[in-house]
Each structure stands twice: as structure tokens, then as C-alpha cells.
Design a protein that fits this description.
It is a single chain. The chain is mainly α. The protein has two domains: about 1-45; about 65-265, Up-down Bundle (Growth Hormone, Chain: A), CATH 1.20.1250. Helix content is about 75%, strand content about 0%. Helix 6 (about 75-105) packs antiparallel against helix 9 (about 180-195) and helix 8 (about 150-165) runs antiparallel to helix 13. The two termini are about 35 Å apart.
Length: about 280
């Protein structure tokens, strides 16, 4: 999905000038997304309940007001879920949105910029997104082998180190250093894939079967507010006023919050949820 979204803009900009993009080109991806809405609807209409939830239904263990039940009994898990996921949102919007704006800004304009063209930076993003996909698969495999907590603990610690180190890759104003930017994007997306992969299993496993969908859904969407809603704005303001290092500090704080959430969670790899 990320590859196709960036690829759509890449193709549009390859055949249209900036005036055309501002006039009508930017609307094309939004129109194309209508197709994905239909696909998503078809998938969800035909989706079946999980075996464990069906067992809960058979035992009459399903609650009538799962939202109330979640906040009454599982509010700690909601907080853990929120900060487990929030850092992946922060990292993604730092890599894909803020860095695109920073990298394509003319050198010296508004406190920095690397001077890449939109097409150059989008192409680098598309390559890095492939790294993201690869590390999602690898992290899922290792989450099943050695546990979700170990994989997420590693990714959180590595993200703190990355947050300290990456600003030095983006401070060469005017050099158009493709190697440095590709290292920044590929390492960043590799760590995002490592953090994101186990979430699909770990997040719902934090909650009891009768409130699992509600609990994980609330946590995931709160994470979108905490970790994504204001990231591009905050990162842009920080970089313009305090330099790229401040963006790294922002990401580092979110990684530490994720680490705290991870270490306070129980390991769920070998838990039998049918009991």
C-alpha cells in the first residue's frame, strides 16, 4: 500500500508539471482510493470471527457493552497498546511525511533543506518501503520463535539509538547525499518493520477474547492520535526552530514510551487463549 501510494505520486509527477499537480493531479490518488474502499468493504463483509471469539460466544461469555468493559477492567492494557503502536506511527510520519518535506525543501529555505526533487525522494522512499515489508516478515517470524516482547524490546532500544544518530545523516545541507538519505530511510523503515510486525498478534493478545476487538481497536486508534495526528506539524516546527536533532529527540521520547509499555506487558507467545 505504501509502495503504491508513493508510486502513484511518482508517476503523476513524471508526466505533469508542478502547476498541473497543484490544479488537479493531487486529486487523482484520492479518487483512486475509492477502489480501495470497495475492496476493504468486500473483505470485511466476508470476514469471519476468530475461533477463540466463537468459543466465547458458545460459552455465553460475550459482553453486551465491550467498550465499558474494556475501560472498567482493561484500561492498563489500553494504555500499553496505545504506546506500543504510537511509536510506529511517529516513525512512519517522520520517515514518509516530514523527511519528504525536509529533503525536497530548497537548501537554506526555512531553516534547512536537502534540495532533492520530489521524484528523487519518492523513488528513495519506494525502495525503503520494500525494506519495511521485508522486516515485517522477519520480525513476525522471530516474534513466533523468541517471543513478542523480545522483538519489541529490541526494536524500542534500537529506535532510541536511531533517534540519536539519524539527524547526522540529514544535516549535510546542499550536498544531496543519496547514500546518507538511503541509510536513514532504509534503517528507519527496517526498525519500523521490526516494531510493526508483531503488533498484529501482540495487540489483541493483551485483551480477553470477549473484548479483544474493542480493546485492540481502541488502543490502535488512540495510538493514531498520540503518534500520528500532529507528527508532521510538530516535526516541521521543531526542525525549523531547533534543528533536526530536536526531531530525533521527539522520536526518542516516543521510543522510550514504547519501551516502558513493552516491559510492563506479559509475554503472550505461549499463552493458550482457549482456556
Amino acid at each position: 500500500g505504501f509502495f503504491l501510494s508513493n508510486g502513484t505520486f511518482f508517476l503523476l509527477e513524471a508526466f505533469n508539471d508542478s502547476e498541473a499537480m497543484m490544479t488537479w493531479g493531487w486529486r487523482v490518488p484520492f479518487l483512486l482510493s475509492a477502489v480501495l474502499v470497495v475492496v476493504g468493504l468486500v473483505v470485511r463483509v466476508h470476514m469471519e470471527e476468530t475461533p477463540i471469539f466463537r468459543m466465547a460466544q458458545e460459552r455465553n461469555a460475550v459482553v453486551k457493552a465491550p467498550v465499558v468493559e474494556v475501560f472498567r477492567k482493561s484500561w492498563v492494557q489500553v494504555l500499553q497498546a496505545t504506546f506500543l503502536v504510537a511509536v510506529t506511527y511517529t516513525l512512519f510520519y517522520t520517515l514518509a511525511t516530514w523527511s519528504l518535506a525536509w529533503g525536497t525543501k530548497p537548501v537554506g529555505q526555512g531553516g534547512g533543506g536537502l534540495g532533492f526533487t520530489n521524484q528523487e525522494y519518492l523513488l528513495m522512499l519506494m525502495v525503503a518501503v520494500c525494506v519495511f515489508a521485508l522486516f515485517i516478515v522477519l520480525s513476525c517470524v522471530y516474534a513466533d520463535r523468541i517471543g513478542r516482547r523480545r522483538v519489541l524490546t529490541f526494536s524500542s532500544v534500537a529506535l532510541v539509538v536511531f533517534a540519536v544518530a539519524f539527524p547526522y545523516l540529514l544535516m549535510g545541507e546542499g550536498k544531496r547525499d543519496f547514500v546518507a538519505v538511503m541509510v536513514f530511510l532504509c534503517v528507519g523503515f527496517a526498525l519500523m518493520g521490526t516494531a510493526f510486525g508483531p503488533i498484529g498478534a501482540f495487540l489483541p493478545e493483551l485483551f480477553d477474547a470477549n473484548v479483544r476487538y474493542t480493546g485492540s481497536g481502541i488502543g490502535y486508534n488512540l495510538a493514531a492520535i498520540v503518534g500520528a495526528a500532529f507528527v508532521p506539524t510538530i516535526a516541521t516546527w521543531l526542525s525549523a526552530n531547533w534543528g533536526v536533532q530536536s526531531v530525533g529527540l521527539y522520536l526518542g521520547v516516543m521510543a522510550v514510551c514504547c519501551l516502558i509499555a513493552v516491559v510492563t506487558c506479559r509475554e503472550t507467545k505461549d499463552v493458550d487463549f482457549t482456556k
